[in-house]
Design a protein that fits this description.
By secondary structure, this protein is an alpha+beta fold. 26% of the residues lie in helices and 7% in strands.
Length: 149
């Protein structure tokens, strides 16, 4: 349960830039490993917020009226075997020493927008769809088989 909203929310893996010296991609790889249990190749991540007009700072402010929090949203364009994705469903993971207890929910892309109230998810979908529409995204590249990691 997320204390500020008083309920569970379907969310994307996310985290603070802690000691990563502003390395958004490295932070994303670390958080996916901690919160989902798979390792991503940094070269297969696309920063969707980088497609925004430079006047935005290429960041998203989820609640600019109440917080100065700024986020970047990334997309993984590598391949993960179906069996690996299916094995993640319901998995309990997270850094217990940080108070994390995360239950992984695998949701089809075309359904997730109706299953969450999380602004990160909804914004990531919008950025992805607009970037795809405008021809800014390329086809998935070949990447290592994550099922062996």
């Amino acid at each position: 349960v997320r204390v500020p909203v008083g309920r569970s929310i379907l969310e994307l893996p996310a985290g603070m830039l802690d000691d990563d010296n502003g390395d958004v991609v490295g932070t994303a790889v670390r958080e996916v490993e901690e919160e989902v249990g798979i390792y991503l190749n940094k070269d297969d991540l696309v920063n969707l917020t980088a497609f925004l007009n430079p006047s935005t700072g290429c960041k998203v402010f989820p609640s600019p009226g109440g917080s100065d929090e700024e986020i970047s949203l990334l997309m993984y364009r590598g391949k993960v075997k179906k069996e690996v994705i299916e094995a993640m469903q319901g998995k309990e993971i997270g850094l217990r020493e940080h108070g994390e207890l995360i239950k992984v929910h695998v949701v089809p892309f075309d359904k997730v927008w109706r299953m969450t109230a999380d602004s990160k998810v909804l914004c990531a979908i919008a950025l992805y769809e607009m970037a795809k529409r405008d021809g800014l995204l390329h086809l998935p590249r070949s990447s290592p088989d994550l099922s062996q990691m």
